[in-house]
Amino acid sequence: MYVAQEKLNSNIAEYVLYMYQLEDLIRGYNFDIDKITENLIRPQVKSNSFEAEAIKWYQEIIDEMKSRQLEQKGHLFRVNEIITELVYLHQTLKEVVKDPKYLGLIAAAEKNIEDFRTKSDLQDNAHLVEVCFYAMYMKLLMRLQQKEISGETENAFDSMRVVLGYLVKGYHQMKSGDMSMFETNN
Asked: Would you say the pTM of this structure is higher than 0.85?
């Protein structure tokens, strides 16, 4: 809960990846708040008052996932909303501002993005931004499982990470009121 809030404020990409992982953990514990309390909350929270607050937060997420029928797959509204904001920022930088640096980053990552989309079970309509997040999540899972990542795959992941990094920087600038990334250099 506190980790999520800190990541939401400091690095939106880390927040999205954290929430992807949290959704999978909740699914892994079969939406059982008692198991989640025992295995996730208590090892991290040392105070009874913080424990009660954390249990409430997890229960709200469980309730939202169940009400939105996310038992098998899919993401919370709060996560999808951020992805949508990043997609709009992507479209603005690409189509309106025509940011040359961003266009170059996309061009460098485009083949890797399409290769990942093809190799994964993502639908063809998954946006480039969403594909990049799924790739970063896959990399995280591979690291957690201590699976070897080839140099070629690492380079592909890096190209997508750089695209997201640029978007995240722009996102945080935009949220702070700094709209300089929208200025054209014409």
From this structure: yes
Spatial separation of the C-alpha atoms in residues 156 and 112, rounded to whole Å: 5
Dihedral sign, Cα of residue 8, residue 142, residue 135, residue 103: positive
Contacts of residues 21-27 at CB distance under 8 Å and 24 or more positions apart, as own/partner, are 21/137, 21/140, 22/61, 23/61, 23/65, 23/70, 23/75, 23/76, 23/79, 26/58, 26/61, 26/62, 26/65, 27/65, 27/71, 27/72
Distance CA 170, CA 86 (A): 9
What would the two tokens of residue 112 be? 């890797």
pLDDT tens digit string along 56-82?
A: 999 999 999 999 999 999 999 999 999
